[in-house]
């Protein structure tokens, strides 16, 4: 394959907002984009640190998100609190295995995959790894793509709570767990967005 | 010129935003896009968006958004009491106490981000259509770029379908007109996304062919 040239080696930078290519200035000088006037840097500033901070926040928040109930329901049959896992098991037991699988995918598989994937990306970049760059670039795109589907359970809880308002007969209220779960989604999205994918290709022996 | 405002002239190149590979600029035909040979990210698109098409899609989105929010997406009637759900009512049910934080996230991702996206596109293109640069052009395109990942209408659609299946096991539930509007809105927003508003910077100079 033909050896490719990288912008960083030519002293060029790309604006993060509008993709305009600009030249690098002398050391220490701030460069602004000619088109959208934003400050342009060769790589996102503090990408690794920010991404790691959001990732750790997400993992910590994921614990209460799973322990605390996401919804309180009360009906003539009595009161009950349901957690994310509890809700999935309930669907499974009542024969709705498809819905159980869907919620498992959105609330457990997607966040855990994101933790592992972003962790792997940060770890390999930290040690200047040249291992499986193409695959890691794909992994990054995948993480960005699946990111927001975790909001599914938050939406289901919100809709259920707005529908089940029959006073003593049947009613539902959101639990504290859903706040933590929502924060997990936002944190992991921020972790993915803070990560600069160009770092994957920056290790010595770079290029394709 | 102040040192902080250095703008260096650069050769006509495209740079991949995801892996930093440099390409010489290529001539693209209408509807064509160039992908990075290294990481397959989109590097360049044909700069002249089909303005009328995009404007038509954006206006349809605005109308569908209105219908989806004014009509019930799901309704239940039990013992003479009727409850309904749509985006706005789902947000309200999260209000009060700590769960207001989740309500705020829902407001941004399900209401504000998609609505603002559609309105900004309409604003931008209504001017571009008459070969004019819209006021606040730079801010509008930069905001569109930031908003994109936070717009989650399709997640709400899937969530409503899950809720319908979930509750239909033990309650008489019916889908309202809102669910069709939501479905159509999801498709139209995806079509708008495919036209990639964040690549419309070339509209800045509409007088050029």
Notes on the protein architecture:
The complex is a heterodimer of chains A (208) and B (209). By secondary structure, chain A is of the alpha+beta class. Chain A has two domains: 1-42, no CATH class; 46-201, Butyryl-CoA Dehydrogenase, subunit A, domain 3 (Up-down Bundle). Chain A has seven helices and eight strands. Chain A has helices spanning 7-10, 47-67, 84-93, 97-126, 133-146, 152-163, 176-194; strands at residues 12-14, 21-23, 31-32, 39-40, 71-75, 78-82, 165-166, 170-174. In chain A, the strands form three sheets. A four-stranded antiparallel β-sheet of chain A has the order 6-5-8-7. Chain A has a two-stranded antiparallel sheet with strand order 1-2. Chain A has a two-stranded antiparallel ribbon with strand order 3-4. In chain A, a hairpin with a 3-residue loop joins β7 and β8. In chain A, 42% of the residues are buried. The mean pLDDT of chain A is 89. Chain B has 209 residues and is an alpha+beta fold. Chain B has two domains: 1-46, no CATH class; 50-204, no CATH class. Helix content of chain B is 48%, strand content 12%. Chain B has six helices and seven strands. Chain B has helices at 51-70, 87-93, 100-128, 137-147, 153-168, 177-194; strands spanning 13-15, 22-24, 33-35, 42-45, 74-78, 81-85, 173-175. In chain B, the strands form three sheets. A three-stranded antiparallel β-sheet of chain B has the order 6-5-7. The longest helix of chain B has 29 residues, at 100-128. Chain B is elongated, with a radius of gyration of 21 Å. Mean pLDDT of chain B is 87; it is low at 1-6. Chains A and B meet through α1, β2, β3, α4 and α5 of A and β1, β5, β6, α2 and α3 of B.
